[in-house]
Structure formats: C-alpha cells, structure tokens
Amino acid sequence: MTPFSMASPVCTPARSAWPRRLLATVALLAAAYTCAADTATNANANGNPMPGATVSSSVLPGSGHSWGFGALDPTRPYLFIARRENGLSVFDTERRQLVKTIAGSAGANAVAFAPALDRAYAVNMDGSLSIIRLSDLSLLRRIAVDDGNLNNLVYDGISRKLLLTGGRREKRSAVYQFDPLSERISLKREFDAGKFDAPLALADGSMLVPLRDEGQVMRISAATLEPLPGWAGKQFAGCEHPSALAADEKLGRLFIACRGKAPQLIVADLNSGDAIAKLPTTPAINALAWDAARRQLLIPSGIAASLSIVQQELAGGVERYRTLGYIGTRPWAHNMTYDAVHGVAHLFTMDFTQAAPDAAGHKQDPIFHADSFTVLSISLNQPSR
C-alpha cells in the first residue's frame, strides 16, 4: 500500500440545509462561484491550478418532467440521452445539434453499446429493453424483462453480456444478464436491496453496484452474477448512502460518492475494498467520472450547481487527493457523461419552478418548463504531458 496524505479542501459545502431541500438558484450559484475563487487561489499557491473551462449549452425540445442517463456512441461523436417520457435523443457533440429522437423509444432510462454487433440497448421505465441498430438509429424491438422500471445497464466485454439493474423496489432488486446473440435473458439474480444506483463495469469482467438504501457497495461477476469474496454488501465507515462510482483501474482505486448528512467522497483500494482517503464533497451526487490522463475526478452536483475537480497526486511515494475547485453549472445538472478523450463533461438540466413546502412542511416537486432541456458541455483544458 502506498503512503497517503491529504490536504484539506479550501471550500466545504454547508451540510445542514442541502440534503433537505433545494436552495434558491441565486444562492446556489453565488456559493459555487465563491468556492471556485477561494480554491483556485489556494491551488495556484501550491503550483496546481484549477483547470480552465469552456461552457457551451444547447436546448432540445420536449415537455418531459424527468430524465435518466446518457452515453457516448463509440463509433462517432454522438451522445445518446435517455429522456424517459421524451424518448432516446441522439445529439451530435461536434455540431451541437439534435440528430433525432428514436421512434418508439419513450421511457428510455439508460443506454449501452455493443458496436461489434451494430447494436445499442436502452432500458426503459416500463421494464422493457430496447434493441436499436446503431448504424441507422432504428428501433428493432422492445423485449419485456420486468414488470417494473429498469434503472441502468452496462456491457461486459469479457462475458459479452449486458447486465441490467432494476429500479427502486420495496425489498428485493434483481440484476439480469442478457445475451445479445440469442436476445434472451440468460441469468437473473435477486439481492436484498431497495435501490440500485448506476453500476460500474470493470475490465476484469466484474461489476460494482451501489446499494444506496443499504449503505453498501457490492461487486459481482458479470458471468455468474455471484458476489465476489468480501464484496457481498461491502460497507464503508461514514458512507450513509453510496450513490455513484468511478475507478482508476491502473492504480487500483475505487471512488465512492456518499450521500447523507455529511456528504463525502471515499477513495478505496479496488481489490481489497480498504478505505484509503475521505474528502468532504457536495451533496446529492448522482455521477462520477475519472480522467486518467489528468488524474482528476469530476463530481457534478445539481443541488450545488457545480462540477468539482479532485486531483490525484503521485509524487515521492505519496498518494494525495485534494479538491482543486468548482466550475459553476446549473441547478438539477446532476447526471453526467464524460468524454475522457476530449476532456468534455456533458450534463443535463431543465429550467424549473419550485414551490415552497406545503402547510405540513412537505417538499413539493419542481415543475420543469417545456422546451428547456439543456445539454451543458464543459470542455477542460488539455492535460500537461
């Protein structure tokens, strides 16, 4: 194990109010920019400046009130965005325009690709799996899988299978293995879990899954769906609700975003699961992304309206992690797809109106505005070589 030291971040978000309610937009943006200025000054003093960024935005049509996840087409500069009731939208990231919304794709929640088979796959809110021909963006068929919503999916290159995870359940949630060649569910395994958050596929043929309600992270074999030794409900001290994962597979590090009263990022050994470091972070994290070239972790928060950058430093046998700063985004920009080749983070949000809590103090759902769905793209400076 390499030695570890950590410099305290300059800016720590307020912990009392953020987990309970969405703050006013102006206050959020002011907080994000204040943190960015403070942290950038400290980073420059230590010779590790906050990267510059260029922010672009594109608005897509639609009147939906929710959206899921996005994924980058491995064959061309297209971003697939699962917009639930608005269907699966395909966005050209170079021209920054909508290519098309795939006919018959309403309910799409997440997407994955098998380019060797000329296929894209989307899991849907009605519990079905959509099979799409990648070359011409046509929906071939929808296959019933579950009677409730499916939350996410990944493609495992070792077993050459898709792994599908269910949405929120009362007590038991399932992972499905789908064979793209036979187009059938080849295996199913249930777990004691109320909610699976977005899974992470690793190059060794395993998959990590956060169990938010249970405060656990499990690692299973993609081939058998069996938990790996020591990972059948792995817990991390202080991690109330693990909600997003990323990995530095070269160094063997797992990054875990933890929701709760004291939101934090945990850095753990990818093989043993031993915790190595903890950093306070922004609230309500739904996605993480690791940039191996820059050795940076990207952390979006829709509540904080910010994209945090955490630097991994390896020098003199010492492993350090510190928050460099924040890039201001927008409220509700919590789901993210990251293009590590070009250093571009794509986030999704909508304009909204937020009513005050009712007479009993219950939080009200926001009302999202029609034709305001925005693809927010943040281009980081190229890493130094």
UniProtKB/TrEMBL annotation:
Q: Does the keyword Transcription regulation apply?
A: no
- UniProt keyword annotations, A-Z: Signal
* Top-rank lineage group of the source organism: Bacteria
Q: Which Gene3D superfamilies match?
A: YVTN repeat-like/Quinoprotein amine dehydrogenase
What the entry lists under InterPro entries is as follows: Quino_amine_DH_bsu, WD40/YVTN_repeat-like_dom_sf
Please list which residues make up the signal peptide. 1-36
What's the protein called, per UniProt? Phytase-like domain-containing protein
Q: What species was this sequence derived from?
A: Herbaspirillum lusitanum
